[in-house]
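DM from R.C. (forwarded with permission)

"hey, sorry to bug you on a friday — could you get me a structure for this? deadline for the figure draft is monday and I only need the backbone to look sensible"
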Amino acid sequence: MLTYGSVCSGIEAASVAWEPLGWRPKFFAEIEAFPSAVLAHHYGSNLVGEPLSKTGVPNYGDFTTVPSLSRQPFARRLRQDPCLRNAVTP
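My reply, with the result:
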């Protein structure tokens, strides 16, 4: 089984696509309320501001709060960039 971490997760279309391949998410990092609610419904994730889920896939919210990404035990990192479209640039 391959595991991965996802930042800017959105509603996790990638996780739906990869599930038949046996790939499983290790964590999400999504800050928006609606996508976080979708993750909570489908993956048992916590909502932003709640304690991390211990029974489902944890949602760290802000991806800068994911502890030691370099030491997380997963095979792949997934970065989904639609959230960058709305980034403020100088």
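R.C.: lifesaver. The first helix runs from residue 13 to 18.
me: no worries. DSSP finds two helices and three strands in the chain.
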